[in-house]
């Protein structure tokens, strides 16, 4: 491991190399980018033993550091997980190329023909924690969208990330693309993160992948734009006219399918006028599934619930816990979500089309759903093939961020000696 | 005039009011927004005398301050200019409403139906110099796109801007929309500008309108995203296979139609293999039109030119001056523009389709043209009805920024009790 004393100089060098690579990448053909991704998948397949050996090194280091089991699990690679990463690369390879797509075109009375065409953004910085698969996923999406990328993985996953990164570089080389298109910061020095956040003019956008600590730090310190969500405080609202079976199915899935992801429901809002037996059945089903229901007011009289504290609303549990509250219809739900939500994903369960329209219209979360589980908040489920993250900001990218949202655009204007009057 | 001691507190109050108004505006119907704009145009028409009186006050203040004639001209209003502002309001009123537009929609194998729908951004801050018409233009575009706006006009135009702003507020009131939707900072205190630039969480994007000094300051100090261009260093490249008549027409128009706008050409690049007589005729026509041609190398031997200095390339003259240089074909032009351009607008003059494709493909300016004058770089000419500015950044908005680019989006997802496997 190299310990770079001068992280800023390192990032400046990497940034310059990335900018040069970006010029080449912006003009690379779809076939060439696809070839690089396929060759990287092949390399990953071939080098499985090397990658697992590197991962063993990381796991040992992490165990000695006393990392929690959940962290160790995120770090761990095996043949299955490597197979998943390889399939991910092939899936992105097979996606349509967003670069050069004509987003709109029109003619003007002056005789000009105007096209709005997708272009890469330039250089993307990705800062992530222990999951080494991000090295491949983020590298692939950046390449697909014609962007150079600087990856800064978690210090625990350095060897695993380096082994996966070597496969990406082999893919680039085989396709005749610059190796600097996908760079991995080769140091555990945390100053490299700060240097990336300040690298205006070198890095165009930063995407943090990880817990609230990392994302908060990035949002606070970054001088370059950031695509991120700080928290996924997702709400499910069960309206008085909800179908009780759908409500049960969706609420259980939204909370329990996986509790550690940002699209997991953290708060259940029930219309005060929803049938009392159905209400009890819903809470009962959550309790039966092993969920701790932190209930407020009347709901807290249901056996098995625990009383909610004030700070349980607007809280991201990422666990088998849900806050629950009665609200006054769809307007009450909207008020609650505006106050406590994080603009990530909310869902209304109702058979009342007007209530659904009101909910979907009034809320301005990145994703607003009707009769569907919040766990669908995912680029793959949206049909984007893969995602580099989920954004809740309103500028440029929002919701699941796939290859298309890693692009900018330019206008191409064609005339015939056309001059302005 | 109120001198606010505490500019930050003022902007915080205005920002809070704007955020509240933004929630209402986001759900306002197209008809209501249109009615507000039409009523504002009517008010402007009715109150012409008041506005001109206010403008007289500003003109007197500016003359006493010893402002340059060009600044006085920008500040000055008359019946004609007021008529133009009124027509602008009516034109924006008649435009399609971007909010709620379905940008894309698709079905998923899970049964989910996904729509990507345009939403307002939230609160826009506009910081401008002496032109009082921006008060109406920017206010109208923000309202059309469902955004609240905080306007900070030049200190010289305070009375004029206040008089125009009063008409906008009358329009809002008549349509039953919150007056805080369009607010004007009521002070000449420059600290208000700094406070706006730091107002994260209150203002979502800042748009500066004015000279390089203002835009540079905003880009440097802003903690919120900025849509802007620092300079318009626009290039026209005349290829060896240019039609000489088109070259002459376009170059003259690009340089001389109006020299003070950001789309005016500042540098002429001529292919070394362009016919020598046509080359001389082109330079001669510029000289005849009264343009100072700062020529380099062989071009400087043409009678009437002056020798170019090194810093004449990459320089925004905003005057009857153009830098001129010979380059080695389209690749030489691309290299020069990448080095000296400001990613605003460039044009190639050629009958060679392959050369044009190469130029349009390789350059990543916001606008790249073929056989057309750079003076078309304008929202009106692009068919956007009006523009709030031109952006050269790659995030979110680029090129002329109209109502559509003042929007964000959200995903609406509809299922039928749909859960994730």
From TrEMBL, chains A, B:
Keyword set includes Cytoplasm: yes
Pathway entry: Amino-acid biosynthesis; L-proline biosynthesis; L-glutamate 5-semialdehyde from L-glutamate: step 2/2
Principal cellular location given in the protein's record: cytoplasm
Keyword field: Amino-acid biosynthesis, Cytoplasm, NADP, Oxidoreductase, Proline biosynthesis
Signal peptide: none
Top enzyme category: oxidoreductase
Cited SUPFAM superfamilies: ALDH-like (SSF53720)
Pfam family membership, one: Aldedh
Protein EC: 1.2.1.41
Catalysed reactions listed for this entry: L-glutamate 5-semialdehyde + phosphate + NADP(+) = L-glutamyl 5-phosphate + NADPH + H(+)
Residue stretches spanning the membrane: none
Keyword Oxidoreductase on entry: yes
HAMAP family for this protein: ProA
Record family assignment: Belongs to the gamma-glutamyl phosphate reductase family.
Protein name, UniProt field: Gamma-glutamyl phosphate reductase
Native source species: Paracoccus subflavus
Gene, per the UniProt record: proA
């Amino acid at each position: 491991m190299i310990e770079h004393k001068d992280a800023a100089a390192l990032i400046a060098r990497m940034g310059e190399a990335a900018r040069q690579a970006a010029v080449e990448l912006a003009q690379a053909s779809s076939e060439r980018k696809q070839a690089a991704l396929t060759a990287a998948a092949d390399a990953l397949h071939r080098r499985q033993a090397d990658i697992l050996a590197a991962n063993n090194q990381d796991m040992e280091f992490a165990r000695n550091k006393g990392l929690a089991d959940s962290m160790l699990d995120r770090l761990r690679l095996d043949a299955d997980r490597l197979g998943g990463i390889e399939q991910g690369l092939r899936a992105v390879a097979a996606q349509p190329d967003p670069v050069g797509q004509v987003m709109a075109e029109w003619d003007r009375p002056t005789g000009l023909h105007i096209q709005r065409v997708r272009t890469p953004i330039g250089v993307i910085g990705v800062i992530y924690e222990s999951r080494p698969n991000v090295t491949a996923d983020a590298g692939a999406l950046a390449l697909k969208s014609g962007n150079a990328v600087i990856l800064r993985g978690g210090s625990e996953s350095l060897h695993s990330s380096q082994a996966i990164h070597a496969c990406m570089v082999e893919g680039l080389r085989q396709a005749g693309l610059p190796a600097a298109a996908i760079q991995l910061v080769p140091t555990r020095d945390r100053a490299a993160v700060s240097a990336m956040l300040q690298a205006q003019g070198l890095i165009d956008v930063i995407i943090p992948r990880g817990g609230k600590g990392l994302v908060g730090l990035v949002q606070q310190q970054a001088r370059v734009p950031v695509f991120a969500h700080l928290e996924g405080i997702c709400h499910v609202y069960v309206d008085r006219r909800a179908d009780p079976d759908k409500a049960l199915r969706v609420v259980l899935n939204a909370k329990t399918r996986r509790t550690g992801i940002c699209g997991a429901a953290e708060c259940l809002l029930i219309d005060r006028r929803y049938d009392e037996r159905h209400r009890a059945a819903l809470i009962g089903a959550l309790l039966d599934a092993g969920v701790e229901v932190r209930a407020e007011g009347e709901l807290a009289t249901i056996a098995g619930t625990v009383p909610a504290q004030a700070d349980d609303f607007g809280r991201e549990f990422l666990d088998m816990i849900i806050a629950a509250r009665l609200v006054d219809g769809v307007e009450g739900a909207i008020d609650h979500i505006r106050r406590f939500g994080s603009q990530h994903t909310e869902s209304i369960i109702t058979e009342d089309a007007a209530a659904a329209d009101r909910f979907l219209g009034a809320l301005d979360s990145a994703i607003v759903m009707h009769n569907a589980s919040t766990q669908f908040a995912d680029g793959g489920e949206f049909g984007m093939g893969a995602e580099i993250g989920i954004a809740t900001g309103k500028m440029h990218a929002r919701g699941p961020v796939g290859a298309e949202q890693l692009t900018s655009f330019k206008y191409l204007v064609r005339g015939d000696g056309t001059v302005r009057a």
